[in-house]
Design goal:
By secondary structure, this protein is an alpha+beta fold. The chain folds into two domains: 114 residues, no CATH class; 72 residues, no CATH class. It comes from Pedobacter ginsengiterrae.
C-alpha cells in the first residue's frame, strides 16, 4: 500500500504544523487508509495475539507502531513499522517499551532487519513460522492454545502474556479477566478429545 501524493501532502502539512503529528486531525484519511490496508492483509486479527476484529468497529483497533512513535519519529509513517493490534497488546502491554529490541540504538540504522527484533515482527517475520495457534470453538465453548516454535515465538508468548488468552479466552481477550480453569462441562466426545489435548499442553 504505497502512500499516494495526496497522502504525502497531508503528512507534510501535519509535520509542518508541529506538535503531535500523529494526533493531527488532518491525517485521519491517511490513518484510515493504513488501518483498512492492514485489516485486509491480516485477515482482521491483532498482529501480536491474533485476536479477531471481525465485526468490530475501527475504534477498537489500534494502528501499531512496532518501533514506538514517541522514540522513533522517523518511522511514524513507514509501512514496515505499522500494523494493527488490539488495545490489550498495544496500550496495556507493549506501550513504549523497547525491551523487545536486541539493541535500541542499533535498530535505528537498520530497522528493516528482522534480526534486530526479539519478538515476531508483524511485517518482517512470518508469524506461524515462529508460533503455532490452535483455536477450537464449539457453540459457547472456546479453547485456545499458543505453542512457540522458535525463540521469537517464545519471546512473543512471554512478552504479550499470551498464556492469559489460553483455554478460555472469551473474557480475557481484552484484558478483562485472567486465565480460566479448564472447562468442566459435558461436551461431545470429539470436542473433549481436542480440549483435553490442549489442556495437557498448558
Amino acid at each position: 500500500m504505497p502512500l499516494n501524493d495526496n497522502d504525502k501532502v497531508l503528512i507534510t502539512e501535519a509535520i509542518a504544523a508541529g506538535g503531535d503529528v500523529w494526533a493531527n486531525d488532518s491525517i485521519k484519511p491517511v490513518k484510515d487508509k493504513i488501518k483498512a490496508y492492514y485489516r485486509g492483509i491480516s485477515g482482521g486479527h491483532c498482529c501480536y495475539c491474533k485476536s479477531s476484529f471481525r465485526g468490530g468497529f475501527n475504534m477498537v483497533i489500534d494502528i501499531e507502531h512496532v518501533l514506538p512513535k514517541s522514540k522513533y519519529a522517523d518511522f511514524i509513517f513507514e509501512l514496515f513499522n505499522l500494523n494493527i493490534s488490539c488495545k490489550r497488546c498495544n496500550m496495556l502491554i507493549k506501550k513504549d517499551r523497547l525491551d523487545f529490541l536486541l539493541d535500541e540504538h542499533m535498530v535505528q540504522q537498520d530497522p528493516r532487519n528482522t534480526d534486530k527484533y526479539l519478538l515476531i515482527h508483524p511485517n518482517l517475520d512470518e508469524y506461524f513460522e515462529h508460533m503455532s495457534l490452535d483455536v477450537v470453538i464449539r457453540n459457547q465453548k472456546e479453547m485456545v492454545k499458543f505453542s512457540p516454535i522458535k525463540p521469537k515465538g517464545q519471546f512473543t508468548y512471554d512478552f504479550f502474556r499470551l498464556s492469559e488468552l489460553e483455554v478460555n479466552s472469551l473474557n480475557s481477550a481484552q484484558g478483562i479477566g485472567q486465565k480460566s480453569e479448564p472447562l468442566s462441562v459435558n461436551l461431545p466426545q470429539d470436542m473433549q478429545d481436542v480440549a483435553n489435548d490442549l489442556i495437557r499442553q498448558l
